[in-house]
Amino acid sequence: MNNRIANVKLLDNLLLQKNDHFERILMKDILFFKADADYCTVYTKLGRFDYAVELTKLEPQLPTNLFMRVHKNYVVHVNAISGFEGRFLYISENKIPVSKQYQDDVLKVFRSI
Asked: Most CB atoms within 10 A, among 57, 58, 72, 87?
């Protein structure tokens, strides 16, 4: 298999370790990530999953054209955003806070989707 195809396949999913095994999550199924101390909750179309990884270590693995940080505890999939009002984003039934420092970036992205 050529490297270009391998890279594409690697970019469409994320492997996260849970206990003694790895779980594959498709990027298109991810809604957002929420940090909590030394673990991260991944909210997907299929439910929510907790992983023992810090969001700051997970974020560099995410494609920057699909994901953005909106708060110190949240990284969201930009295509999952259904609404934006004041200092909050709406993704599905979830109300995500937007920090003042990220508000302008969120506005730019929201206007482009």
From this structure: 58
Q: Per-residue pLDDT tens for 50-74? A: 888 899 999 998 999 999 999 999 9
Fold of 29-112: OB fold (Dihydrolipoamide Acetyltransferase, E2P) (2.40.50)
Which amino acid, residue 100?
A: K
Determine contact, residues 22/36, Cβ cutoff 8 Å: no
Q: Edge-to-edge strand order for the sheet containing 67-71? A: 47-51, 39-44, 30-36, 74-77, 67-71
DSSP 8-state code for residue 81:
-
d(CA 112, CA 109): 5
Q: What is the dihedral of CA 85, 40, 73, 65, to 10 degrees?
A: -60
What's the pTM value of the predicted model, to 2 decimals? 0.84
Ordered by start, the domain boundaries in the chain are 29-112
Q: How far apart are CA 11 and CA 9, in angstroms?
A: 5
Other CB atoms within 10 Å distance of the CB of residue 71: 21
